[in-house]
Amino acid sequence: MIHTRGLTRTFRARGATVEAVRGLDLDIEAGSVVALLGPNGAGKTTSLRMLTTLLRPTSGTAVVAGHDVLADPSGVRHRIGYLGQGNSAGSNFRVGDELVVQGRAYGLSRVESRARAQRLLGALELEGLAKRTVATLSGGQRRRLDIAMALVHEPQLLFLDEPTTGLDPHSRANIWEHVLRLREELGTTVVFTTHYLEEADLWAGRVMVVDHGRVIADGSAERLKADLAGDRITLGTAGCADAERAVALARALPAVHEVSAEGTQVRVRTPRGDTQLPVLLRHLEAAGVRALTARLSRPTLDDVFLHLTGRTLWESADADVPTVTHDGA
Ligand SMILES: Nc1ncnc2c1ncn2[C@@H]1O[C@H](COP(=O)(O)OP(=O)(O)OP(=O)(O)O)[C@@H](O)[C@H]1O
């Protein structure tokens, strides 16, 4: 559904060249749900804007829904839906009219456009609001309207740039419920960006972690967490001597890495904490080392990012975004 090779985009800003996207090689299969996850300034929006033909790549190729973004941008546009950051809908129009006009803009007949608008209003639980102006909608309702607008021409591929930013947890869950149900019904491929780690974790079959314009990890959330972060076991021992002995015993176990002690606390990383914890406790007991507490924590996608970059996702990448300085600046 999406194939890119060496896709790059640079910007000139204040005498310097910002390398927003640096050599993106993507192959995304039809029907998948893919999350692009990364800190501010990682290049997610720039990537989506190139794939949706809103921004010309500096170099590289991209074929989206079977059409080249440079050679046939309108072929791409007819097959995709795009929900950008912020709202697309005009505020003084009525909700139902917005959808019908959008359908007409995509070349649908008046009858077909009305029928699609009706279906989407129902599917996104907006039918009671059809006669209201967009300005009177809540944030969550407005975002649902944006999604309806992006779906009115029944695209094969839906791009969502931070679809739930600024919404409360209930509205966020509600948006995802709708998007995934529509995706089931229509078989739409979904590519989205988000700052909410749990959304990537819960809803995406594939997570691409982006940093400084490059994909630095790619796989299912489970796989990335198991391979790159692992579970964390934290043991509380009776004293520092016990902690040191526990460290030695933990290091001797297979499939255990990053063993460290801080005072009486011992920390262990392992891909399978649920099976390793009982084994470790048995070894400690056999060696006469007392563990007073034992805690198993599952990793998050933030742990994956931390493992890969030494930073958390919340630390902005803007500060050290790759730039090439010109003009002696
Ligand atoms: N029009 C522009 N002119 C100059 N620099 C730009 C422009 N658009 C984006 N950039 C820079 O390119 C880099 C990537 O920006 P982009 O918006 O793609 O990041 P992002 O991952 O989507 O961030 P966010 O999560 O904050 O939306 C940033 O350093 C940004 O400042």
TrEMBL record:
PROSITE patterns attached to this UniProt entry: ABC_TRANSPORTER_1 (PS00211), ABC_TRANSPORTER_2 (PS50893)
Matches recorded under Pfam families: ABC_tran (PF00005), DrrA1-3_C (PF13732)
Gene3D superfamilies tied to this protein: P-loop containing nucleotide triphosphate hydrolases (3.40.50.300)
Keyword Transport: yes
Residues covered by the ABC transporter domain: 2-237
Keywords attached to this entry: ATP-binding, Nucleotide-binding, Transport
GO molecular function: ATP binding
Key word ATP-binding present: yes
Transmembrane spans: none
Coiled-coil positions: none
Record-given protein name: ATP-binding cassette domain-containing protein
Species of the source: Streptomyces argenteolus
Taxon lineage: Bacteria, Bacillati, Actinomycetota, Actinomycetes, Kitasatosporales
